[in-house]
Amino acid sequence: MSSQEIPDENLPAEQDTAHGAVEVADDPFADPGLPAHKPRIQDIDERAAKRSERAVAFMFTLSMLATIGFIASYVIFPVDKIVYIWPFGHVSALNFSLGLTLGVALFAIGAGAVHWARTLMSDVEVADDRHAIEAEPEVKAKVLADFAAGAEESAFGRRKLIRNTLFGALALVPLSGVVLLRDLGPLPEKKLRNTLWAKGKQLINMNTMEPLRPEDVAVGSLTFAMPEGLTEDAEDFQNQIAKAALMIIRIEPANIKDKREREWAHEGIVAFSKICTHVGCPISLYEQQTHHVLCPCHQSTFDLSDGARVIFGPAGHALPQLRIGVNSEGNLEALGDFEEPVGPAFWERG
């Protein structure tokens, strides 16, 4: 492009052709400055400012009422109360009310603060030059001297009783928050250690709901059982059956490799937990010829003729065995509870 084609406004203001230097009249990187401040309606109209003030106060008041509603909901609604709320469907009244009131309380505080800042607080932009973050040597020396003087005047180093009790108070006061964790739910107590099985409890066939007898269990068959006294309409049925479900298998005594398994069986009838020790899936796939059971979730395989040890898959523990016998009525009964934890959790119990 020739100089004739360049617009005049793009040409330098002066040219020194003798020395080849170009002199520009205006600095292209000059600080443009801040735009002129435009006042808001609240800045010039006190009535508008009062309206904004009332709006902020309303949102803060709404937050207070929502917080009171949160506390009231916690007291009023029982944990098991279910209500229908469109469009969510059937939900817990307690959870819904707690979430709604807490959400409104937090949102109202945030919205009120934002509205306050945007309408009533000063919005004048101020530019300031950057400065070094590090303090001057004189300032640092003064701060250190003041700190040393304050430490000396407080006698923190000499008054060991005050110092030690202060440390104790600061260490213990956070424990107050730990108390709040107690209200997160019921304590587990020994619920993970024990199941409903106990000495003398009969094995109930989960298909017929009748007590199991040795003659009901054929060699190579698989039967599922639960403890006597547990019914499907019980409130805690799912929690209890998740720990107490049994697999009943009859193996020829000569084919049982594990000594303890043979002693805890009755005429080759063995009872093992149905709950996989990997992630707690119910086991139901049985190979009659190999005496292996397979978990359908992650293919953990257990040998029921050898103490239900793991022979394949991610499970880390053998299936717990229940010691069984026969009562005076000829029905199979438990001779105690499991000696190992059932399922995938709580294996390293004390």
Give the SSE map.
Layout: E1 14-16, E2 21-23, H1 41-44, H2 46-76, E3 82-85, E4 89-92, H3 93-119, H4 137-154, H5 160-172, H6 175-181, E5 203-205, E6 222-227, H7 237-244, E7 246-250, H8 259-264, E8 269-273, E9 285-287, E10 292-294, E11 301-303, E12 309-312, E13 321-322, E14 324-326, E15 332-334
Antiparallel strand pairs: 1-2, 3-4, 5-6, 6-7, 7-8, 8-13, 9-10, 10-11, 11-12, 14-15
Helix pairs in contact: 2-3
Question: Can you characterise this structure?
Answer:
By secondary structure, the protein is of the alpha+beta class. 33% of the residues lie in helices and 15% in strands. It contains eight helices and 15 strands. The protein has helices at residues 41-44, 46-76, 93-119, 137-154, 160-172, 175-181, 237-244, 259-264, and strands spanning 14-16, 21-23, 82-85, 89-92, 203-205, 222-227, 246-250, 269-273, 285-287, 292-294, 301-303, 309-312, 321-322, 324-326, 332-334. A five-stranded antiparallel sheet has the order 5-6-7-8-13. Mean pLDDT is 85; it is low at 15-19.
